[in-house]
Predict the 3D structure of the following.
Amino acid sequence: MTLILALDFGGTKLAAATVHAGSKQWLGYERRLSPANANADTDLEIMRSVINSLLKGAKPEAIGVSFGGPVDATTGKVRLSHHVLGWENVPLRDLLEEEFGVPAYVDNDANVAALGEYRFGAGQGYDSLFYMTVSTGVGGGWILNGKPWRGAEGMAGEIGHMVVDPSGPVCLCGKRGCVERLASGPYMAQDVREVLRNVRAACPEDIPPSRQGRQGRRGEVLRELVGDNLELITGQIVSEAAAAGDDLAKEILYRASWALGVGIGNVANLINPQLFVLGGGVMKAGEDFWQVLRKVARETALPEVPSEIVSAALGDDAPLWGAVALAEDVLG
Amino acid sequence: MTLILALDFGGTKLAAATVHAGSKQWLGYERRLSPANANADTDLEIMRSVINSLLKGAKPEAIGVSFGGPVDATTGKVRLSHHVLGWENVPLRDLLEEEFGVPAYVDNDANVAALGEYRFGAGQGYDSLFYMTVSTGVGGGWILNGKPWRGAEGMAGEIGHMVVDPSGPVCLCGKRGCVERLASGPYMAQDVREVLRNVRAACPEDIPPSRQGRQGRRGEVLRELVGDNLELITGQIVSEAAAAGDDLAKEILYRASWALGVGIGNVANLINPQLFVLGGGVMKAGEDFWQVLRKVARETALPEVPSEIVSAALGDDAPLWGAVALAEDVLG
């Protein structure tokens, strides 16, 4: 049986797994956190030890790799990582092919996860789909005509920086109202924190008592959840607070689901894929979140452009399963 | 030599041409206006007489057809026309195949024009491109991996109804701030007219003299160009007035080029095609218009996503040349 090695360099985490080609069951599977002061060398070192412990001397027939950052998939060269230093122009495919003496294929995580969901997850049986991950960032990957579509510079799928509200808040990319600026976990947490700080700063002298009451309920649950330490607020905390009825958290989440809905509707009009597959931590925000997103997407798309929008099926393993598909394709 | 018949059902105009496969020179070429009270039957009747006058008894080997409205390209059935009555569910491909006894292929005009520019025009030598036409509407068509990409329901390319300003004016489709709402000729004319009417209605009592002067210059050229008959204002008149320095016309045109730039930048991030090809009457608005559009597109796209944006090369003949390409592909 053909042994395949799948690797996932995820920025804050590293994962590797082995599987027999054609099987849907891992033979071996390991996950490690990337240390806070990680660089490309330490990541590669950790990955080597994980691989050795998985392979135990066996030799894979091919290696598939998901990398959390821009990659030139034709050469397998990493362009850079936005999270870990030292990845600039690392020829990751060549390194692996030399070290293990077998063919390897490297692509960025959104493309690879799209392929994983298409081959093994929610996208099975479809011919065209757009996969989106909504967590610390917002990224996407394409399957068109049953194959990954990477774009001329390998940059396709960047829905995170589609502008949906040109009068919205400023994103790290310099534009206003990008999907990622409105819908990623860290940005939602940041916006919530800012509102809470301003309310506190203004209280109690500047705000009339009637409004104080309202402002109090807005954010009250959020404050309780983090014991008043605003730094502890995350995207997930915002979700929890919204589920518990916090109005501020609900507003911020509503805006996020609205932004995702507009983005998806725009993409539907533009490419008209059969399916949208949505994964990532933010998508666990609950039924209301999904409902708003689906409604706004439907309103944004033309009536002739129906959009099926489903939850990703493979969770954090989507990139690993996509890496398996990459390796299987290398074997032909 | 293989004779090909190319047809263009354009909504307000009908065109047909003949060419030898592989040639870039028309053998015969005719254009007719569709009468104001046209329906599908009269359009077909006019087209028959044009075809007969072109073919003079010769028999083509294949027929390619561009249709100005949604088409199911797999069956060659027209869904409807937004301009001409009676086209609902007309099996145009079957009609033509029966009448002429040769294979035919029918697709919507934006897809066909994209194919025309790809095979015979500004997109020659590229592998992926997005073609946009900006005139009475805003539409688009895709070439990906050297082939038309039509989408699951044949609706891909609808950049006209991408929302770029959710607080913008309401579009016929019900949404606010669609690209078409901001950049199509008739909508630009409508917005200019509305401003001019409001200025007149408010003058002279309500506006202080200092502002009256300014408002006067805004729109003065526009009024002159149409002899004060605002109904005569068109997208082209707006362009002419802007070129002559009219501030109101310049503002409306700026907004249009901004909307197109945001749309193109968003598309670049999402699909990363090699090339954008822009045609249609509005694109003749001049160098300033192109400059703003290119600048906004560059700012909207991520720095890693360069976008080459060029003018269409085939003008009004893009759909006919695309129809030739469709017919050539049918012949294999």
